[in-house]
Design a protein that fits this description.
Number of strands: 7
Structural class: alpha+beta
Oligomer: single chain
Radius of gyration: 14 Å
Distance between the termini: 37 Å
Number of helices: 4
Order of helices and strands: HHEEHEEEEEH
Length: 133
């Protein structure tokens, strides 16, 4: 298992592993999450991990990253991803950005921006590749 909290978090989300998600967070972590229809916060590593586990380990089938990028600068990391899955027999996609402030013990602050899971196909990598030319 990785000692880097960013890698730990990404790998745990991919495995739908609640204990692995918790391992990424400092005990005093805080989550602020923005989705299309909610604004949520959680305080403390256990509460943050429980909220993420609720979202990432229970509702989808066969999740896989179709695009993932990690940008780091000092004690901050940004994870952009597009994740595909099946839900109720249909292809779904979710696009998110996660801003992580790192410190002793792991992720201390986590800001999540989510467009919301939707029925559909992946296209973020294709769109980003098109904008680079």
């Amino acid at each position: 298992m990785s000692t880097d909290p960013v890698t730990t978090l990404i790998e745990a989300l991919d495995r739908k592993d609640a204990a692995g998600i918790r391992a990424a967070y400092a005990d005093d972590a805080r989550l602020v999450a923005v989705t299309p229809n909610t604004f949520q916060t959680a305080d403390g590593g256990d509460a943050v991990a429980a909220k993420l586990a609720e979202w990432f380990t229970t509702w989808e089938e066969g999740p896989a990253y179709s695009f993932i990028a990690v940008t780091r600068e000092g004690d901050r990391a940004v994870i952009d991803f597009e994740r595909t899955s099946t839900f109720e027999g249909k292809p779904w996609v979710v696009r998110q950005a996660h801003v992580l402030d790192l410190g002793p013990g792991g992720v201390r602050a986590h800001r999540m921006y989510c467009c919301g899971p939707r029925e559909g196909e992946p296209d973020l990598a294709r769109a980003l590749a098109g904008s680079a030319s």
